[in-house]
Amino acid sequence: MRKRKLIAGNWKMNGTLEANDALLRAVAAGINELACQVVVCVPAPYLAQVQMLRQGSKIELGAQDVSRHATGAYTGEVSATMLREFGVRYAIVGHSERRQCHGETDAIVAEKARTALAHGITPIVCVGETLAEREAGQTEEVVKRQLAAVIHVNGHCISEIVVAYEPVWAIGTGKTASPEQAQQVHALLRQQLAAATEHAERVHLLYGGSMNAANAATLLAQTDIDGGLVGGASLKAPDFLQIIAAACA
Length: 249
Ligand code: PEP
Fold this sequence. Notes:
The chain is an alpha/beta fold. It has one domain: TIM Barrel (Alpha-Beta Barrel), CATH 3.20.20.70. It has helices at residues 17-30, 47-53, 80-85, 96-101, 106-118, 131-135, 139-154, 179-194, 216-220, 237-248; strands at residues 6-10, 37-42, 59-63, 88-93, 122-127, 162-165, 205-208, 227-230. Strands 1-2-3-4-5-6-7-8 form an eight-stranded parallel β-barrel, surrounded by five helices. Helix 1 (17-30) packs parallel to helix 10, helix 5 (106-118) crosses helix 7 (139-154) and helix 7 (139-154) packs parallel to helix 8 (179-194). The structure holds phosphoenolpyruvate. Phosphoenolpyruvate (PEP) binds next to strand 8.
């Protein structure tokens, strides 16, 4: 059976109580009959608000990060248990902005994925190469190394994760990987997962990097692209709804 596509919005550090209210209501009103899964990954202070707003809709709640630690002296961090209390079902881990600005290594990302899974939260594990790495012909090596770390630590339940291929050069830049470039990397990731689990086909492989209303349908039509991780376009209800419609088609 063909799996339902998954569209996850990453609000990053954007939003206000007022803007979130308008955005969530508009998105929820536009997606009554869903043939795909929709998640919004919101800043931690807005979890309670969005948990309330999403009630009665098919929108799932996601976080943008999760601590690898269970509890204790980790100022500023948010634990998986806390996220669960707000109904969080998904957490982005290893987003390139966290790898670059917060020194998250492959090993830390793998631990975060493990903590999320242990608490019933599906980690959306981001992998992707920088422009310099792509130009040096290292794309395959980089994404495989990033995913290998997560497989190494989470091998027994690796089919429970979501993987987002996000070429760093395409995030927030308006430059999108061509459908062929994206499919090529997704096929590699699928192969790598298949070596670790017999359920690799179940794993959602999302594409992220300037996905928008105009390019979503072509990207989502690729064999191994099972959805999208959407940044900027998830902040505009009409654009996000068009991407969702492309995924539901
Ligand atoms: C992201 O933040 O994960 C992302 C893909 O951003 P954008 O869609 O804005 O490129």
